[in-house]
Design goal:
Blueprint lengths: L3 H30 L3 H12 L9 H27 L4 H7 L6 H18 L4 H11 L6 H15 L17 H21 L9 H24 L5 H18 L3 H14 L2 H6 L1 H7 L9 H17 L5 H7 L1 H15 L5 H18 L4 H15 L8 H18 L2 H5 L4 H5 L4 H18 L6 H10 L1 H4 L12 H16 L5 H15 L7 H18 L16 H13 L7 H17 L3 H17 L4 H16 L6 H16 L4 H11 L14 H26 L6 H16 L6 H16 L7 H20 L1 H8 L4
Helix pairs in contact: 1-2, 1-3, 2-3, 2-5, 3-5, 4-5, 5-6, 5-7, 6-8, 7-8, 7-9, 8-9, 8-10, 9-11, 10-11, 11-14, 13-16, 14-17, 16-17, 17-18, 17-19, 19-22, 22-25, 23-26, 25-27, 26-27, 27-28, 27-29, 28-29, 29-30, 29-31, 31-32, 31-33, 32-33, 33-34, 33-35, 34-35, 35-36, 35-37, 37-38
InterPro entries: ARM-type_fold, Vps35, Vps35_C
Keywords: Cytoplasm, Endosome, Golgi apparatus, Membrane, Protein transport, Transport
Family: Belongs to the VPS35 family.
């Protein structure tokens, strides 16, 4: 780490260098203004002498260099003006070489050389060759790099490229390429040499400084890529071999990684494709510490994007057998770098898979081959806990899903589940969730039991605890996961009833292994899928609805019963009761009275033996009443037994108001509009009178405990039931009984001891408005309401 003292000293040295540079630049400007060439060269050389320092870090040296660069641009303009005034550019080129120190001399030479080339008094290639050779006189890495960077900067627009004004019989694009390659080679040598100068304890510092200078070297490759004359043939025969030779031979980790990345980023994708073998053969020759996986991954990413640019380029990939070459190169790299982390191995295969899915989407054998190679590397290891590796495996497994948008395709890959087995429990669950979300996003229909079995084996991390890892606490993530599984179960469908039954049986086999915390989420959707199948079979012909038929409602109901019974071990009696009632309603639609009665029996047993919470009892009894009201299949004996039980349960609720509401709800069990056989006005009236007695008891209890009458809300609710059945034509509900109840309500509400109840007042007002509405409406119902006086 650089101490504060060294930083302060460096600032002083930089300030001193800038001051000296500015002073000499001032005198140089005066000489330029007076057209004094001799003094201009003198002060510019003194100005450039400030760049001879060895005390500055690359960052600070760059700041000083840029100030000198700006002044040199002004000097170059002056040289051009001198040439127009008759000064011989050849003599000027010779004159600048009289500077006393080599570094200022070479900066001035490059500046004059730029003007020399532009004058076209000599072939560009000769001047460029002279300059690049002369720059070898500076072997100090930092000073040499910036000098050659300056040479590259002033010459880049004067290269003899195709179509350039500097192209001629003596100057060809080969000369331009040779110049840039030679400059690149020398700069890379200087850059690498920096790593080996200085004490070993400052190795990390030097590495950081070299990282700051890498763009100076990389700009040469960028210049090469911009030369119009560098076609595929020249790139293949000259440029790439020379660049790779320098890259491999430098044997420097930082340089090799950066230069390989530069090659991939700056040259065209089609060039990479046509020289793929050459480029890939260099990878195993790199130092073992080089991050080859990132280099190859970026190469495959670029090629994938190139393939995605249009179908017309795909034939190029087929011609060069890109997949085979990349696959072979990856194997060689992994073999050469025995200590490569497993995350790196998976990253390479994930990149290759992305490339393959883009170029060969129809070749599932290629995809499975990649997965198989990955399995080979992962086999024999314990389940991965490396977060980077597991993240890459999840990306690897997600790629086919994102490409094909169809889990069916993934299920055809034999190595897909084998890779999932390599994941730890957390990552397995994460990947399972990705699969489920993909299915729901793409609305994929999975219609066979075989596919369902394979799918649920893939997502077993969501279906059951792996390796005995059980947590009793239910967090939001767990609940969301189970809700996703529930939605997945609802999406499973087959038009063939026999196959759909097999699907249901397969799902049941898997979810029953889920344990007590999962069953409340996964059993209900399975039950509803089963009932949906039952309703599809409702209209099945009698000839195929017997016990010999492969799929019948009876068989499905037997399966459903066994599934609901699994909830008994949790227990969740309220959920089980609701499911039994749903099944009873489905059996009612299928005209299966014994089955429907059995479901109701099971619901009643749960109510009596398992449901003890008073609030749950209230909810359950209203659910029972509502379901029983919709049943039409029962004979008189069975219906009487069930309604008797329901009214008995209602009268035994803990709280009197709950009793009252449940009892008057039971009145609907004895009068159904669409069933003439279920119209018993006497029992309707009996229920309503019983509700009235309970409401009176509530008032008396309130008066005894609080010294005042309670709310008349219950009486108003019962009045609404009276009006309902009066409107339906129940003869036992008379106008007199409605009047009496109305009078009772008014007495209760306007009694001196009754507290004000806004809810009751609003409810009564709404009821009176309804009565008036029916009177105004007229007709048969209106005539009946005319008999009711407010």
């Amino acid at each position: 780490m650089i101490s504060d003292g060294v930083v302060e000293d460096e600032e002083k040295w930089l300030s001193a260098g800038i001051a000296g540079l500015q002073q000499n630049a001032f005198y140089m400007h005066r000489a330029l203004d007076s057209n004094n060439l001799k003094d201009a060269l003198k002060y510019s050389a003194q100005m450039l002498s400030e760049l001879r320092t060895s005390r500055l870090s690359p960052h600070k040296y760059y700041e000083l260099y840029m100030r000198a660069f700006d002044e040199l641009r002004k000097l170059e303009i002056f040289f051009k003006e001198e040439a127009t005034r008759g000064c011989s550019i050849v003599e000027l080129y010779e004159l600048v070489q009289h500077a006393g120190n080599i570094l200022p001399r070479l900066y001035l030479l490059c500046t004059a050389g730029s003007v020399y080339i532009k004058s076209k008094e000599a072939p560009a290639k000769d001047v460029l060759k002279d300059l690049v050779e002369m720059c070898r006189g500076i072997q100090h890495p930092l000073r040499g790099l910036f000098l050659r960077s300056y040479l590259s900067q002033v010459s880049r627009d004067k290269l003899p490229d195709i179509g350039s004004e500097y192209e001629g019989d003596a100057d060809t694009v080969i000369d331009a390429v040779e110049f840039v390659l030679q400059n690149f080679t020398e700069m890379n040598k200087l850059w690498v040499r920096m790593q080996h100068q200085g004490p070993a304890r400052e190795k990390d510092k030097r590495g950081k400084e070299r990282g700051e200078l890498r763009d100076l070297v990389g700009k040469n490759l960028h210049v090469l890529s911009q030369i119009e004359g560098v076609d595929l043939e020249m790139y293949k025969e000259i440029v790439l071999p020379r660049v790779l030779e320098q890259t491999v031979n430098c044997k420097d980790e930082l340089a090799q990684y950066y230069l390989m990345d530069c090659i991939i980023q700056v040259f065209p994708d089609e060039y990479h494709l046509q020289t793929l073998e050459t480029l890939l053969n260099a990878c195993p020759q790199l130092q073992a510490s080089v991050d080859v996986k990132t280099v190859l991954s970026r190469l495959m990413e670029r090629l994938s994007n190139y393939a995605a640019s249009g179908p017309e380029v795909l034939h190029e990939f087929f011609q060069v057998e890109a997949f085979a070459k990349l696959n072979s190169a990856i194997s060689k790299v992994i073999e050469a770098q025995e200590n490569m982390p497993i995350a790196g191995v998976v990253t390479l295969y994930a990149s290759l898979l992305t490339f393959t899915l883009q170029v060969h989407p129809d070749r599932l054998d290629y995809v499975d081959q990649i997965l198989g190679a990955c399995v080979m590397k992962l086999s024999g290891r314990e389940k991965l806990d490396d977060s980077k590796a597991t993240k890459q495996i999840v990306a690897l497994l997600s790629a086919p899903l994102e490409k094909y948008k169809d889990i069916d395709t993934a299920l055809k890959l034999s190595n897909y589940p084998r890779i999932m087995e390599c994941l730890n429990d957390g990552s397995h669950k994460e990947m399972a969730n990705v699969i489920v979300q993909n299915i729901m996003k793409n609305k994929t229909c999975i219609s066979t039991a075989e596919k369902v079995d394979a799918l649920f084996e893939l997502i077993k991390g969501l279906i059951r605890d792996l390796d005995g890892d059980s947590h009793d606490e239910l967090d939001e993530d767990f609940i969301e996961e189970q809700n996703s599984v529930a939605r997945l179960i609802q999406m499973l469908h087959s038009d063939d009833p026999d196959e759909m039954l097999k699907v249901i049986q397969t799902v049941r086999k898997h979810i029953l292994t889920g344990g007590r915390k999962r069953l409340p989420y996964t059993v209900p959707p399975l039950i509803f899928s089963s009932l949906q199948l039952v309703r599809r079979l409702e209209r099945q012909d009698e000839s195929v609805s017997g016990d010999e038929a492969p799929t019948t409602p009876k068989k499905i109901f037997q399966l459903v019963t066994q599934t609901i019974e699994a909830l008994a071990s949790i227990p969740v009696p309220e959920l089980a009761l609701g499911l039994y009632l749903q099944c009873a309603e489905a059996a009612n639609d299928c005209d299966l009275e014994p089955v429907a009665y059995e479901f109701f029996t099971q619901a009643y047993i749960l109510y009596e033996e398992e449901i003890t919470d008073s609030k749950t009892q209230v909810t359950s009894i209203h659910l029972i009443i509502g379901t029983l009201q919709r049943m039409h299949i029962f004979g008189v004996e069975n219906r009487d037994a069930l309604t008797h039980k329901a009214t008995g349960y209602s009268a035994k609720l803990l709280k009197k108001p709950d009793q009252c509401r449940a009892v008057y709800a039971c009145s609907h069990l004895f009068w159904l509009d669409d069933h003439d056989s279920i119209r018993d006005g006497e029992r309707v009236l009996l229920c309503l009178k019983r509700a009235l007695r309970i409401a009176n008891a509530v008032q008396q209890m309130t008066n005894a405990t609080r010294g005042s009458s309670g709310s008349a809300l219950l009486f108003i609710e019962i009045l609404n039931k009276y009006l309902y059945f009066y409107e339906k034509g129940v003869s036992q509900i008379t106008v007199e009984s409605i009047h009496d109840l109305s009078k009772l309500i008014k007495n209760e509400m306007h009694g001196g001891s009754s507290p004000s109840d806004p809810a009751a007042d609003a409810f009564l007002a709404s009821t009176l408005r309804y009565i008036q509405f029916q009177k105004d409406k007229g007709g048969a119902v209106g005539d009946k309401y005319m008999l009711i006086t407010n």
